[in-house]
Fold this protein.
Amino acid sequence: MLIISLIKGSCNFVTSDFPNKNPHTQNHLTITGMNIKLIPITTDRKSKQTYLKDAFCVEFYNIYKELYPKIGFNKPWIGYFALHNDEVIGVGGFKGVPNNNTVEIAYGTVPKKEGLGFANKICKQLTLIALNETSNLKITARTLMEESASTHILRKNNYNFIGIVEDPNDGKVWEWEFQKD
């Protein structure tokens, strides 16, 4: 699994089992004392049994189970359970492989873990995974057309609002794009 250590804004990449272009990757993400691991969501229900005790996880397992036959299972462009202290605190992932040098991220937290900073960390990790694979990749995210925790998280992670787009599932939504420093 791709792991990126972030401590006080600096990035250290350490070894990964994803075939990536950066030789410095490791197995977890540490950000200011908060350790988050991303565990790939596979269609092998038996190997994910531990995580499928929660209705939240089952919902996202089923979403990716239906999505993978349409978009493929191409690491790292997949879905992940996000763990903190071996407890599922959320999910995150990519809505497919990059297309026209663009990839879209999506993330969320278990309702009882909302407001604790986990969605921010998941968003940051997905962005770093994408940049680690292709440094010039355009990374986008979509939100409902209203100010929310999601819009705050995206701004905090250096995403800028770029306009209104028509999403096939959600109708008109706001689109955001990551801006490199």
Notes: The chain has three helices and ten strands. Residues 4-138 form a domain with the Aminopeptidase fold (CATH 3.40.630).
